Structures are given as structure tokens and as C-alpha cells.
From TrEMBL:
It holds the Pfam family Serinc. It is found in: Membrane. Belongs to the TDE1 family. Residues 1-28 are annotated as: Disordered. The chain crosses the membrane at residues 50-67, 96-115, 136-154, 160-180, 201-224, 230-250, 257-276, 296-319, 340-361, 381-401. Residues 1-19 have a biased composition (Basic and acidic residues). This is Serine incorporator.
């Protein structure tokens, strides 16, 4: 009884509701029941992301095992041959491509079955977040079937995987640039306090100093001889891109500050370093010397880091569907909306399957890949250099395009006024 003599029904917490269950659920308003159900489904959906990430990581490990130790695992399968017309063994390139094809098929089927999912109460949301026994069977079938496909078709998949890996790199670049833009807007916004802006200026200074130091270190280790003309060109052009981005960012019409350009400068310096690090160790301008029959701890640690980087890059790009929307609508996220785009998530993972295949075989279908190595060779070097140049081009276009668009609109308005 309350102070007015009326009966008061006790309120139940979500924990009590779960423990008691049954008739007590009917005592809650329908809106509260719907909110609890949506919260449970949303948490289940968010946890499912990490399960798919673990599947992708295990797929990478399996591909590596088939590449380096394939003959010991399944010696009866002739997947290690047929790398081209020469019919020679190519260090299990076919094994990597077959594992990659299985991973691609699984995630592409998940993309087809979850594309355009909008609400948490849809059946496709349940399929994405649950039904793990059935998905395990589907995954097993997807991995077994490619080992019975003729090598000629696997070779064709390898050619297509190059295109898919290139698309993945473009998506990754856009995601990175959007993150840099968000970080710059967060720290250098006009609404932020002076202390926050000071932190932003300090961070931009750190990034630029790191970029300059990185260029100097690359000159010392990778371009110490005049005969290393290609590396000298790579490093020098990276320095030119750094200066161009800084000048355009500080231009009065652009006025984007130094933080975003500083972060982007560090990123392209890192890409340049990884590109030259991918050069074969036998080259005279590469400090990484290959010792026949000996694998050091540095090679093993570098391989593990690179493997984790592949998974993290794929996972972070997959959950960043907002960066790829053509219309930036600021619609409020409803309670029963899915927390991220399932279709885009699985599409990125399917492209990531093609990407890790190219890294394991160094983008060359007929190459001999050394054990405990990843993404090493001239093909890998040029892919990363082009990736660096493309990243700088996209970033500069994002700086210049708003100015060009504004100028075009102003000219159009002046023409209308004159008429």
C-alpha cells in the first residue's frame, strides 16, 4: 500500500526476470520486454564478431601450415604442384589457395544470407549470431570441397584473388583515412577546450618528428649506397608527399591543421618502410640477410605479428561500414536496429581471405616462398608502394574536393545573380 491506500506492484530487475522467468515476464510492459530482448540480441550479435574473427585467424594458421608443412600433413594430395605450365613444385602455393578459397566461400555465403539485414528480430540476425553447429558443418564443407577441384580452376581463383585483395586494400585505406579524419575533428574541433587543442598540437608535432626520423632511418638502412637508386626514389618521393600534404593542409582555403596530415605522413612512411622490408633478403640494398636453413627468432616474431595484423585489419575494416556510406544521414539508431552491417562485415572477411592468400604467396602464383616468411618479394614491394601512393592520393583528394565543390557552388550562384 502507498500513502494514498493504493496497491503498488513491485518492480522486477532484469536479473530477477531472468532468474524467475515464466509468468513474471507478463507483468512487465511490452515495451520493457522488447527492450530486454533487443539488448540480449544485440549483445549476442556483438559477441558473434569475435567468433568470426577467431575463425578467420584459424584459417590463416591452417593456410600457413599447408604452405610450410603441407607434405607432412597430407602427402597424398597433389595440391603442391601445377604452379603454371612448368608443372614444378612451388612450396604449396596451391594449398594456400585452396584454404583461401574455402574461407572465401564460407564468408561469401554468409554475406549472401545476411545482406540487407536491418532489424534484430529478423531471422537473418538469428542466423548471423547463432546456429553455430550448422555453420560449423558449412565451414567444414567449404574447406573440404576445394581440395577436390582441379588445379587449373584453383589457378584461376588465384588470379581473381589478386583483384579481391586489391579491393580489400582500397577498403582498408578508406577506413584508415576516415579514422584519421575523425581523430583530427575530435582533437582539433572548435568546441574543444584549449587544453585538448594543445594535446592535438603536441600529437601532430610528435607524428611529424616521427615521420622525419623514419625517413632518415630508411635512408641509412635501405639507401646507404648510390647504387640503391630505386630505394632512394621510394624514400625521396615519400618525403615529397609528406611536404605536399603539410602545405595543402595549412592552405588558407583548406585549413585542416597539422594533426591529420601528421598522422597520414606517419602512415605513408610506415607503408614505405614495409615495402622496402618486403624486398628479397638477397638484394644488396636490403639489410635483412637470408641464411639458408636457419630461421631466427626475429623471423618468427615478425611472422606472428604480421599474422595478427592481417586479422586485426580485416576485423577493424569489417565493422567500419559507416565509412563507406554514400549518404551520411545522421539518423538516430533505433533500439531494434542491428549494431553493425552484417553483409559488409562478411564481405570484407571474404575479401580478406583473398588478401591473406596473396600475402602468403607474396602475390606471385609461381613463387618459392621461404618458411616463416610472409609478403616478401618484389611483387609485394610494388604492391605496398602503389598502396602508399594511392593512400596519399585519396587523402589529398579528401582535402581538395570540399574546396573545389564550394568554389563550383559559389560560381554557380554568381552566374544566377548575374542572369
Amino acid at each position: 500500500m502507498d500513502e494514498h491506500g493504493q496497491n503498488v506492484e513491485p518492480k522486477m530487475t532484469e536479473t530477477e526476470l531472468r532468474e524467475n522467468g515464466g509468468p513474471q515476464c507478463e507483468e512487465l510492459p511490452s515495451s520493457v520486454q522488447k527492450s530486454i530482448k533487443c539488448s540480449v540480441r544485440k549483445k549476442k550479435s556483438l559477441r558473434a564478431r569475435y567468433a568470426y574473427g577467431v575463425i578467420f585467424l584459424l584459417t590463416n594458421i591452417i593456410a600457413w601450415l599447408f604452405r610450410d608443412y603441407g607434405e607432412r600433413i597430407l602427402p597424398m594430395l597433389p595440391y603442391s604442384k601445377a604452379c603454371g605450365a612448368e608443372e614444378r613444385e612451388c612450396n604449396h602455393t596451391m594449398g594456400v589457395l585452396r584454404v583461401s578459397l574455402g574461407c572465401f566461400v564460407f564468408f561469401f555465403l554468409m554475406f549472401v544470407t545476411t545482406c540487407n539485414t536491418r532489424k534484430l528480430y529478423e531471422v537473418r540476425n538469428t542466423w548471423h549470431s547463432g546456429w553455430w553447429t550448422m555453420k560449423f558443418v558449412l565451414l567444414l564443407i567449404s574447406f573440404v570441397i576445394p581440395f577436390f577441384i582441379p588445379s587449373d580452376y584453383i589457378q584461376l581463383y588465384g588470379e581473381l584473388a589478386r583483384v579481391g585483395a586489391g579491393i580489400f586494400l582500397i577498403l582498408q585505406l578508406i577506413s584508415v583515412i576516415e579514422f584519421i579524419t575523425w581523430w583530427n575533428n575530435y582533437w582539433m574541433s572548435d568546441d574543444r577546450k584549449k587544453s585538448s587543442c594543445s594535446i592535438g598540437l603536441f600529437m601532430s608535432t610528435v607524428f611529424y618528428i616521427s615521420s622525419v626520423c623514419g625517413i632518415v632511418v630508411m635512408y641509412v638502412f635501405y639507401a646507404s649506397k648510390t647504387s640503391c637508386s630505386l630505394n632512394i626514389f621510394f624514400i625521396s618521393w615519400t618525403g615529397v608527399l609528406l611536404i605536399v600534404m603539410m602545405v595543402i593542409s595549412l592552405h588558407s582555403k583548406v585549413n585542416r591543421g597539422l594533426l591529420s596530415s601528421g598522422i597520414m605522413a606517419s602512415y605513408i612512411v610506415f607503408l614505405c618502410w614495409t615495402a622496402m622490408r618486403s624486398e628479397p633478403g638477397s638484394e644488396k640494398c636490403s639489410p635483412e640477410k637470408q641464411e639458408s636453413g636457419h630461421i631466427g627468432w626475429s623471423a618468427i616474431v615478425g611472422f606472428v605479428i604480421a599474422l595478427c595484423a592481417i586479422v586485426i585489419a580485416t576485423f577493424s575494416t569489417g565493422i567500419d561500414s559507416q565509412s563507406f556510406q554514400f549518404r551520411k544521414d545522421k539518423a538516430q539508431l533505433l533500439e531494434d536496429d542491428i549494431p553493425y552491417s552484417y553483409g559488409f562485415f562478411h564481405l570484407v572477411f571474404s575479401l580478406g581471405a583473398m588478401y591473406f592468400a596473396m600475402l602468403f604467396i607474396s602475390w606471385n602464383l609461381g613463387s618459392l616462398t621461404r618458411k616463416w616468411s610472409i609478403d616478401v618479394g618484389w611483387a609485394s614491394t610494388w604492391v605496398k608502394i602503389v598502396n602508399e601512393w594511392f593512400a596519399a592520393t585519396i587523402y589529398l583528394w579528401k582535402l581538395i574536393f570540399p574546396v573545389l565543390k564550394e568554389t563550383k557552388v559559389m560560381n554557380h550562384e554568381e552566374t544566377i545573380e548575374e542572369v
